[in-house]
Amino acid sequence: MAVDIGRSISEIVAAGERTYSFEFFPPKDETGAAQLWQAITELEPYRPTFVSVTYGAGGGTRDLTVQITERIARETTMVPVAHLTCVGHTSEELNTILDELDVAGVRHVMALRGDPPGGPGSAWTPTEGGFSHASELVRLIKARAGAATRVGVAAFPEGHVDAESLEQDARVLREKYDEGAEFAITDMVLRASDYVGLLERADAAGAAMPIIPGIMPILGLRSMERMAELSRRELPREVVDRLTPLADDPAALRAEGIQIASELCETLLEAGAPGLHFYTLNRSKATREIWDNLRIEVPTA
Ligand code: FAD
Fold first, then answer.
1. Which CATH entry fits the domain spanning 9-294: 3.30.980.10, 3.40.50.920, 3.10.180.10, 3.20.20.220?
2. Which atom of ligand 1 is the closest one to the Cα of 116?
3. What CA–CA distances, in Å, run from 221 to 226, 246, 285?
4. Which residues line ligand 1 (CB under 6 A)?
5. Model pLDDT for residues 204-238, shown as the tens digit of each residue
């Protein structure tokens, strides 16, 4: 069931419905744009609760987040969520982008700090006149006149790479909740037990919002290992053990990756996940395959 302005994601979850959502990123060129809109078109019939569009770490794609979410709001039946980060922006610039999103009819924002320009784990230097923590961006959004925008935030199944401890990590989530965040989406979940641990820590810290697990199937072992390394994580041994024997057979490896992701989704939903958030990488096929494996019913209008 898609969210309208009247129903927030937390209200949908409170009503006992699951949320299903898809994430896209702004393309770098024409070919990428065609691929993105093909994926969006192929996934629209699944009637996701919302679709989100990431915000570039810098460079040329940043304006595209507003443009793409605006087009989703205007041309599709789907509810767009625009990501926004504090990287390189003053609070005035962030306010200007939020004004643009308002005009574009985008009513949901993922409020993020963003990674330091040196990558995850390197030192963070705030922009003068800007923010150091995502909680400050949540506060800015909720303090705006009308304050109609619904805010989501990031959560981390294994704790954020720079968190002092898992408890401090949960306190940060509580801070974002206290500032007005209504839901959280996690970094890609590698192990269901990490996600369950996060739910327990968030609950103990009083971060009483839905925390939706992020899903990214492994379709290539080396590329996924590199991606995990970049965020200073490691693929679980049991997953690597299932995929390594298939390293020379890309089709079999991909099929096993889809199977592993489908099993993970089932375990997460059984463990109480309020829904699933698919990192699509601007392609629809893997998400559709997992969706079919899980036999998720497409909601009626
Ligand atoms: P914060 O909540 O600010 O946390 C960052 C660090 O600061 C943590 O170590 C935290 O423990 C610490 N901290 C926070 N508050 C305090 C405080 N008050 N006192 C002391 N320490 C504190 N990046 C992009 O560039 N574009 C995107 O579109 C994007 N989308 C994302 C979507 C999801 C679902 C996720 C999980 C991540 C996304 N990211 C994106 C990456 C994200 O920006 C980075 O992981 C970033 O390093 C942390 O962002 P945050 O919003 O969690 O920051």
1. 3.20.20.220
2. 47
3. 9, 9, 18
4. 54-55, 57, 83, 85, 110, 112-115, 120, 133-135, 154, 160, 162-163, 168-169, 172, 175, 185-187, 214
5. 999 999 999 999 999 999 999 999 998 889 999 99
